[in-house]
Amino acid sequence: xxxxxxxxxxxxxxxxxxxxxxxxxxxxxxxxxxxxxxxxxxxxxxxxxxxxxxxxxxxxxxxxxxxxxxxxxxxxxxxxxxxxxxxxxxxxxxxxxxxxxxxxxxxxxxxxxxxxxxxxxxxxxxxxxxxxxxxxxxxxxxxxxxxxxxxxxxxxxxxxxxxxxxxxxxxxxxxxxxxxxxxxxxxxxxxxxxxxxxxxxxxxxxxxxxxxxxxxxxxxxxxxxxxxxxxxxxxxxxxxxxxxxxxxxxxxxxxxxxxxxxxxxxxxxxxxxxxxxxxxxxxxxxxxxxxxxxxxxxxxxxxxxxxxxxxxxxxxxxxxxxxxxxxxxxxxxxxxxxxxxxxxxxxxxxxxxxxxxxxxxxxxxxxxxxxxxxxxxxxxxxxxxxxxxxxxxxxxxxxxxxxxxxxxxxxxxxxxxxxxxxxxxxxxxxxxxxxxxxxxxxxxxxxxxxxxxxxxxxxxxxxxxxxxxxxxxxxxxxxxxxxxxxxxxxxxxxxxxxxxxxxxxxxxxxxxxxxxxxxxxxxxxxxxxxxxxxxxxxxxxxxxxxxxxxxxxxxxx
Length: 557
Description:
Layout lengths: L1 H25 L2 H5 L2 E5 L6 H10 L3 E5 L8 E4 L3 E5 L13 H14 L4 E3 L3 H4 L4 H4 L2 H4 L19 H13 L8 H7 L2 H12 L5 H13 L5 H11 L5 H8 L3 E4 L2 E4 L28 H21 L17 H6 L25 H8 L5 E4 L9 E5 L9 E5 L17 E6 L5 E6 L5 E6 L32 E6 L4 E8 L2 E8 H8 L13 H6 L1 H21 L1
Parallel strand pairs: 1-4, 4-5, 7-8, 8-10
Antiparallel strand pairs: 1-11, 2-3, 6-7, 9-10, 11-12, 12-13, 14-15, 15-16
Helix pairs in contact: 1-19, 4-13, 11-12
């Protein structure tokens, strides 16, 4: 009798184990094998910010903050991948940091080639222009060189106009009084580089920051010619930025998350409003996210090889109408481009976060993607979350995480202040965000898989008075929930109006009332038996009991 009971117990436990294993398998084999993913983006040459991120990160270990070449030695911890979201260069902090940031990230990629992904941003790829625009044939021209074609004509500045403004300001004379001789004398490689940075790359002051970084690294005051050479050499054979570009890619998929620099929606010159599936040069959009990402990265690699093969203008005397290698990808990263994952922005007209349209969320969901992780668009003092679709995985759903915090504190010398955050996509499909705001306040919160449970309010917008339930649509441009501040038991609410960010710290209970969502059950409540059964610890206990039961049966037989 006892033996029969033991067999029955063992059979029941085995059945429970089978059910649990089946449930785990239904979550996807990738979940069990995938690493956690740490994400940071838009470092933009800011060495101090980069080091603050490394010290904060759960994925990285700072082995040596000051190597002989001025870079840092960093290690990636076991069980982690790192995705850098692009825009490695251009701005810097107290002094320029582009050289050090690039070298450190390239070394990390070389050390962990399968675990580190370097995405490319507009600030990275627009440097392809250096080989064709900062060269003797172009410096011999002045009036013939036009301003940037992507800028509205009434705001477009050519090299000649740049020099007239510069000379007039320094001499204290009207622009019309600037002579041809003055223009000729000022038409140097250094001033051409300054024009490119300021009026075509959005990096005013980077020339001086690069000079300061060279002085710091080499302990001498560089000449203007040496500063120019530093930029040009960076994209020449053996150059640091050239290596970064060749190691980089435009998109990647890890687990249930799609990573790109800018996003997948925008207003593009062909009239389309999204770039999902679009690859330049192909007649039709590619179906399936994985296939699209592969094709897009292959196109990027081919464009870089084309640039290497033809780095100069085919007809140097007519740069406005000539061709050069990589022209298509150079055009891919300018405003009013063709559909581009780099130039997309997920914003409303007032710059509030815009949820993903339902049709795009459904297309992503059909390929197993429930989260879009992006940079490119600065959005306040911490990452911004925008939710699309119903809670608890009902209907098409997608969560957008916008992680560019490069304009966290406009009163700081680097526009960041103390703000630094890390976004983590965990192997079980959830996400974790932690860091600090510009004033040092600590933030930390979790995001459930998909758009999370209905009680999760990060990313929700405060609904209009007539609306009865919490809303994931921030299009009303009211306040939205940006972060959780555990030390003060409050949520950070944010409202955006153009470039102005207005923050409020709202106590927990009041926050749930404002978004009209019921708070989650008390943490003291016991989990359901089914949840325990399907949990990994439950499976371990069941397995142990199963083995014990089996042993009992064998002994009693």
